[in-house]
């Protein structure tokens, strides 16, 4: 076994031990195919008021601009599919936000993986990324063979669908690289047909400024009345395109205790949500990603749905 193969096997083994669903590795370099796509998406204002998407265009496309002498992008998936979902008679929050904020949970696991690499392999430089830096997570996951890009623009796998987080370690270590897998969406248009706000404007292209997740999380101003009645009771995020995807029949519940929801969250009714106080908000969403929208944001969303 070559030294590269040995290092690759060690990293993948440790990723599995830390609870990651899977680990794929790509050669760090410029994402040629993504560049025109990203440029077109931005030029069409599909990022709405998410102006941060315009920043660091070159870094988004080239990890060697984020980590000096980067050689490999180690992509990792972490399952968040819950065992139980909310009461059916309730305003809904996206399943990824049921438990503790994934940024903290994943950062901790990435730190452990990085320390393991340094202990077992030696002086390796790199950085960990969880969806908060200019890295095109989905493009790297696809390049690393972890799944294909679905028509709803989420990464899909035949075994477990799409309910997982994506994270990366970009390191200056040569490893063995994985290959992309084939697309298995076929002629299916379930996600496009089901999107309540027609945000999937063509297969594989989502207009972020029309997405319910954008309106309920990213948009800081009032939600436009033109979309009133189209939110299907989603008050934070939206899972419709994933819920209707045939590949998500194979989703299995996660085994990460930190992703388990506060029991109160699952039992709350519409009336409970309409009467929510700041104290209850703080208790139910103690360390949750829902805190991003703040109490005022969530109550704004609930009022909009009423």
UniProtKB/TrEMBL annotation:
It holds the Pfam family QueG_DUF1730. Cob(II)alamin binds at residues 60, 131, 155, 166, 213, 238-239. [4Fe-4S] cluster 1 binds at residues 185, 188, 191, 245. GO terms for molecular function: 4 iron, 4 sulfur cluster binding; cobalamin binding; epoxyqueuosine reductase activity; metal ion binding. Its cofactor is cob(II)alamin; [4Fe-4S] cluster. InterPro entries: 4Fe4S_Fe-S-bd, 4Fe4S_Fe_S_CS, QueG, QueG_DUF1730. Pathway: tRNA modification; tRNA-queuosine biosynthesis. Its EC number is 1.17.99.6. Binds 2 [4Fe-4S] clusters per monomer. One of its GO terms (cellular component) is cytoplasm. The active site is at residue 131. It catalyses: epoxyqueuosine(34) in tRNA + AH2 = queuosine(34) in tRNA + A + H2O. Residues 173-205 form the 4Fe-4S ferredoxin-type domain. GO terms for biological process: tRNA queuosine(34) biosynthetic process. Keywords: 4Fe-4S, Cobalamin, Cobalt, Cytoplasm, Iron, Iron-sulfur, Metal-binding, Oxidoreductase, Queuosine biosynthesis, tRNA processing. TRNA binds at residue 220. Belongs to the QueG family. Monomer. This is Epoxyqueuosine reductase.
